[in-house]
Design a protein that fits this description.
Blueprint: H1 10-16, H2 27-33, H3 42-45, E1 50-58, E2 64-72, E3 81-87, H4 102-111, E4 114-118, H5 130-144, H6 146-149, E5 151-161, H7 163-178, E6 185-189, H8 200-204, H9 214-225, E7 251-256, H10 262-274, E8 279-284, H11 291-294, H12 299-315
Parallel strand pairs: 3-4, 3-5, 5-6, 6-7, 7-8
Antiparallel strand pairs: 1-2, 2-4
Helix pairs in contact: 4-12, 5-7
Amino acid sequence: MAAARPALDPELQELLSGMPLMTRLTPELLAQVRPFASAPVEPLIEGRAIDRREATATSPDGTPIPLSVFTPAKADRTAPSPCVYWMHGGGMVMGDRFSQIDIPLEWLDELGAVVVTVDYRLAPEATGTTPVDDCYQGLLWVADHAADLGIDPARIVVAGASAGGGLAAGVTLLARDRGTPGIAAQVLIGPMLDHRNATASSLQYADVPGVWTREMNAFGWHCLLGDLTPAEVPTYVSPALADDLAGLPPTYIDTGSAEVFRDEATAYATGIWSAGGHADLHVWAGAFHGFDALYPQARLSTTARTTRTTWLTHTLP
């Protein structure tokens, strides 16, 4: 008997019908799809009042970590700006620092935020804590260079989508536990939080073609974790393992009702509430994984994006 699943939003369902969908990833398929997970950033910033610079952080093992910095190009920009530190999606195995960059660039336009995006190393070439450590080192670089970048260090937002949402959660936990740097808020968009891949929503999206299925999720996690045993998986890599979510900054989490990550995202918000924290959770009825990145002009996508921006406007001091 086929698993019951939430119905898709009619507009999104029509849009999705024209997209080639898969059930699973393999190393061979990954090599084929990786080039399509990246896109040039130049068309997104052409004609917009944005200054761009490239920078490099350094990992503890000496590996360069590329960063791109996008700044509002305003002659009257005198006061320090908020900053959005962005981690891209791609299941931990694909994408680059320009993937889904249109999402935080909206916050540059609307909030005057400086956007910094990081190229963390990907699995399976990089495993374990390497991607989250790269992201954390990039965040330390941002905090250390806040004055030079025109950033208010008290208004740094950590944000990401899909795998980037999971990395954002891990980086925020690292910053909390190490006491630096300060994070004003975190935005987790369809976050990849739980390597166990065993929630009800994960099981609903097994053995069915989609944007991101349970089988594809298992592949991404296996590439990242390799031969680690369950007891060896670090909390910063799989944030759903955290047994204490106290002391986190205000958190915005959103997800679709029709996606693998629905239940782990909901559970993460519940964990923050249980610890007395602030979490704003949105489960968009009829939305599949990555809906607003793939089809930003759809009605539900526009609503989701506007809601996030409104939350950030109200949350940043």
